[in-house]
Each structure stands twice: as structure tokens, then as C-alpha cells.
Design a protein that fits this description.
binds S-adenosylmethionine, Rossmann fold, alpha/beta, globular, 2 domains
Length: 262
């Protein structure tokens, strides 16, 4: 594992992180839209839920599909899933598996692969490429792949003092603390995002314990189009992002839904 991946692994395999993820149970707006779109077909699908965490998405997808496998490289996360879904039927499984080695699964096995809530952004660049390759191998031609990824066009917002203001005093304090610490860590923030296709940096998530991959949405779309078709992109409100908005969209992360084309 590369050093950035080791830092992230240690954070995700930490009891406090598992607790935090256990408390979040709602779907994000784009995930809601994706569930709506796929729902009619889910009953015939085998689903792989990568980076399942404490099982937030399991609640919404596992009962609709023919077979559900939730995987995570964090043993503590998988332990929590097994506990939370103790009385699950046999077609719902959880396994400790790193996305960079999906060799236990046959080729073309899954009809739907999900890597939700930016899980893919906690891999190094090389591991990310390997993850895409592995996902492509286990996904069925014509099946679906969905994931979200951080948007490099949003990095400037993290350093914009005015953008930290909110009417909630506790949130305001948290934002200002994070802003200040970020400014100390990165005194020249322009260098993080200007004229770059991607950047891996500490954006303050989980109390500054993660290194996160941010990429340019247009570049991500072009990369995907080599092996996927029908690419749809969603903003944080679940609205479709059109191709001509890709240069200006500044949501923190973007959801992709596409079909395996192999
Ligand atoms: C941001 S959390 C999201 C958890 C869950 N999907 C959710 O939405 O609540 C990212 C998850 O991806 C997992 N993850 C990160 N890198 C991974 C890898 N290489 N293989 C498998 N899981 C990974 C982490 O352990 C963590 O549970």
C-alpha cells in the first residue's frame, strides 16, 4: 500500500470512524435518483457494494436485488455490517475485500457495482486505476456502475473565507477552524487545483485524518467513456449535470452512473 492509502486505511479501520458512519442512515439525493432509475430492474441483479462502510446503502439496495455482496477493506466496518444485519437472508453477504484485489469474483458476474460516497477517492492514483480495471472485469456487459468522486473545481471553495459562513453557530465554528487549519497546511491553495487533472490532499475530512483524491469531472468522464456508455452525472441535489456544465460545476463531489461497455 502507498503511504496515502495506509493513512486512509488506518482511519477507516478505526472504531470512532465506524461509529460515525453507523449513525448516517439516509441516502444522498443522487443515490435516491439512481435507486429510482434502477429499481424496476434490481430484482434480477447481482449487486456488488464496494466500500460498504457500516452498511448505509445496504438498507436501501439489498432487499431489492437477487444477490447482494457488500465488501470493505476495513475489518471493523465489515464486523459492524454483520452485526447490523445479523438476521440477513443468505443472498446478502459481507466480506473483507480490498477493491484492488477482486480475484474471488468471476468475470462478468455483477449486474450493478456501486462504490458510494467517494470511497474510490481514498486510493492512490495507481490503485484507483487498478480498481477501475477490476470493476470492469467483474461487471457484466450492459450492467451498471455507479460511484461518486470529489470535484477538483470545488477545492477553491474550501479556501474561500466567505463560503464558510452559515447561520448555525456550531457549524460556523467548525468551518472556521477547518478553514484556518487548511490555510496553514496549504498557504498557496491555487497550486492544489489550478491547471491540474487531479490532486490528492488533506481536505480536513474526519478531523484531518484522510488524504482525498479530487479530479476534474470532464477528465473523469473522458476516462470512463473508454469502457462505459450512457454516462450520467448528478450534482449534490440529484440534478443531472449536462456536458456543458462540466467546466463550472462546483459541488464538492459528483455522482456518476454508467453502463459497462465491453
Ligand atoms: C467514505 S466511506 C463510505 C462508506 C459507505 N459506503 C457509506 O456511504 O456510508 C468509504 C468506505 O470505503 C472503504 N474503502 C476505502 N478504500 C477501500 C478499498 N481499497 N477497498 C475496499 N473498501 C475501501 C472504507 O473503508 C470506507 O468504509
Amino acid at each position: 500500500m502507498k503511504s496515502e492509502s495506509m493513512i486512509n486505511y488506518a482511519t477507516y479501520n478505526d472504531y470512532k470512524t465506524v461509529e460515525k458512519y453507523s449513525k448516517v442512515n439516509s441516502l444522498q439525493e443522487p443515490e435516491r435518483k439512481i435507486l429510482e432509475l434502477l429499481k424496476p430492474a434490481l430484482k434480477n441483479m447481482r449487486m456488488l457494494d464496494i466500500g460498504v462502510g457500516a452498511g448505509r446503502t445496504t438498507r436501501y439496495f439489498s432487499n431489492h436485488v437477487k444477490e447482494y455482496v457488500g465488501i470493505d477493506y476495513s475489518p471493523l466496518m465489515i464486523e459492524r455490517c454483520k452485526h447490523n444485519f445479523e438476521n440477513r437472508p443468505d443472498n446478502i453477504k459481507f466480506e473483507i475485500i480490498d477493491v484492488i484485489d477482486l480475484s474471488v469474483f468471476p468475470d462478468n458476474y455483477f449486474d450493478f457495482v456501486l462504490f458510494s460516497f467517494n470511497g474510490i477517492d481514498y486510493l492512490s492514483k495507481e490503485e484507483r486505476q487498478l480498481a477501475f480495471k477490476n470493476i470492469l472485469r467483474v461487471g457484466k456487459n450492459g450492467g451498471y456502475f455507479s460511484f461518486s468522486t470529489h470535484n477538483i473545481l470545488s477545492v477553491k471553495n474550501l479556501f474561500d473565507f466567505k463560503k464558510q459562513f452559515t447561520s448555525n453557530p456550531k457549524q460556523l465554528m467548525r468551518n472556521l477552524k477547518t478553514w484556518f487549519r487548511l490555510k496553514l497546511l496549504y498557504p498557496q491553495p491555487d497550486k492544489l487545483y489550478k491547471n491540474r487533472d487531479y490532486v490528492i490532499f488533506n481536505d480536513g475530512s474526519l478531523n484531518f485524518n484522510l488524504l482525498t483524491f479530487y479530479t476534474n469531472p470532464q477528465i473523469q468522464k473522458e476516462e470512463l467513456s473508454k469502457n462505459f456508455t450512457c454516462i450520467k452525472m448528478f450534482d449534490s441535489n440529484g440534478n443531472i449535470i449536462n456536458g456543458n456544465e462540466l467546466d463550472t460545476v462546483n459541488d464538492n463531489w459528483i455522482y456518476f452512473l454508467c453502463k459497462f461497455n465491453k
